[in-house]
Design a protein that fits this description.
The chain is an alpha/beta fold. It has three domains: about 200 residues, 3-Layer(aba) Sandwich (Rossmann fold); about 90 residues, Rossmann fold; about 130 residues, Rossmann fold (3-Layer(aba) Sandwich). It has 19 helices and 14 strands. The strands form three sheets. Strands 3-2-1-4-5-6 form a six-stranded parallel beta sheet, with helices on both faces. Strands 11-10-9-12-13-14 form a six-stranded parallel beta sheet. A two-stranded parallel ribbon has the order 7-8. Helix 10 packs across helix 13 and helix 12 runs antiparallel to helix 13. The longest helix is centred in the middle third of the chain and has 32 residues. The termini are far apart.
């Protein structure tokens, strides 16, 4: 069985590396020649713990190869995973241009039966659009070659993607034929043997499962942030509230941490896309529209606390930011709360000092030299008027607070992730402001 993965972004690379690790042989396709050249040398274009080592290991074993031409490998390919990007369009809907481009290429160059699997996150109904493109291309060629389309959504958390793929909660496969089902069973046999469930559904349900999962997680985050804001008003502690409700087996403990809003490549994009899908069918997802509204508002909350503390007189203040990525263990800054906060600080004429263990190169790509990049957190805190914790990197957990107090102009901490112990910091002489505490 010959397998191709089109798209060497986050999903495509992790999928390729993990399937190769399970013993399959794959060829990865991307139109970006520089990216392919880098991958051929074993260098990953994205940061994900353990990914580069896995890529190198499987390249050396001959299970992974790379090319810029899907058409050149089509004659020998049996299964294609389409893992290209689906960026949000201007109206919030998912842009399917690249997904359909893959379908056009497959239809033009396929010579035998092919299973085309959509791995990208796409709206319900995309499989039918892909199917129609394949039929159109085969009709133009005057060919009648059998094929299947299928959906195999990913459920990867950035920073933990390797573990998520190798030890999945579930593997969802949307199929319409027994042939496609058998190919999925063959691909994922190593995972099934290890006890991980393979769930077969119709294609529309598989497409919806991915959006519904991300929408539910985004909802939990926004719900807890809303509750945190109310806790501050009434004098409750969201940390205690979280423990109380998380102990309920019907609710569980995951995704109940209050903070400064969700970001990244998935939640913001997917919430917008499912809202737009509903609108296209004449339905309004009221809950998710509120989820989105709460999240956008929450990204401002730390700046608002800082501004209130200094009576809205922020001009000339030196502000230290610890963490820039939208979450730990990634350099991803797409939709990161840090970008909103940096923009507001700069507009308030603050001097911004920043440190992140991984994401500073990405930050420079996005905001340039408008902020100062530091070599460590202590350098960022030198003469700072305030510390803003934006990303809960492990290395920020245990800091020398006595040293920090001596470095700062004013010992005040705005903890955007409720990472620190308020009692401990107050005893050391810090003013502490968390979320919902």
């Amino acid at each position: 069985m010959k397998i191709a993965i089109v798209g060497t972004g986050y999903v495509g690379l992790v999928t390729a590396a993990c399937l190769a690790e399970a013993g399959l042989t794959l060829i990865c396709v991307d139109i970006d020649a520089k990216k392919i050249e880098s991958l051929q040398g074993g260098r990953s274009p994205i940061y994900e713990p353990g990914l580069e080592e896995m890529l190198l290991r499987n390249i050396e074993k001959g299970r992974l190869s790379f090319t810029t031409s899907l058409s050149s490998v089509m004659p020998e390919i049996d299964v294609i995973f389409s893992a290209v990007g689906t960026p949000p369009d201007e109206d919030g809907s998912a842009d399917l241009q690249y997904v359909l481009d893959v379908a056009h290429t497959v239809g033009k160059y396929m010579r035998k039966y092919v299973l085309l699997i959509t791995k990208s996150t796409v709206p319900v109904g995309t499989a039918e659009k892909v199917r129609n493109v394949l039929k159109e291309e085969l009709s133009i060629r005057g060919e009648d070659i059998p094929f299947d389309v299928a959906s195999n959504p990913e459920f990867l958390k950035e920073g933990n993607a390797i573990n998520d793929f190798m030890k999945p909660d579930r593997i969802v496969c949307g199929v319409q034929s027994n042939t496609a089902k058998k190919l999925f069973e063959k691909i994922y046999k190593p995972f099934v043997l290890n006890g991980y469930p393979l769930i077969f559904t119709d294609i529309a349900s598989a497409e919806m499962i991915k959006y519904a999962a991300n929408a539910m997680l985004a909802t939990r985050i926004s719900f807890m942030n809303d509750m945190a804001n109310l806790c501050e008003i009434v004098g409750a502690d969201i940390h205690v509230v979280r423990q109380g409700i998380g102990s309920d087996s019907r609710i569980g403990k995951q995704f109940l941490n209050a903070g400064i809003g969700y970001g990244g490549a998935c939640f913001p994009k997917d919430v917008k896309a499912i809202i737009k899908t509903a609108e296209q069918y004449g339905y309004t997802l009221e809950v998710l529209k509120a989820v989105e509204k709460v999240n956008e508002k929450q990204k401002n909350i730390l700046f608002n606390k800082l501004s209130n503390y200094y009576a809205h007189q922020l001009a000339g203040k030196r502000i230290a930011l610890l963490g820039l990525s939208f979450k730990p263990n990634t350099d991803d800054m797409r939709e990161a709360p840090a970008l909103v906060i940096i923009d507001k600080l700069l507009k308030a004429n603050c001097e911004v000092m920043a440190y992140d263990p991984i994401a500073m190169e990405e930050a420079y790509r996005r905001v340039g030299n408008t902020i100062t990049y530091c070599n460590n957190c202590y350098e960022a805190l030198q003469d700072a008027d305030a510390l803003l914790l934006l990303t809960e990197w492990t290395e920020f957990r245990v800091l020398d607070w006595v040293k920090i107090k001596s470095l700062m102009r004013e010992p005040v901490v705005f903890d955007g992730r409720n990472f620190y112990d308020p009692t401990e910091l107050k005893q050391l002489g810090f003013a502490y402001f968390g979320i919902g505490r």
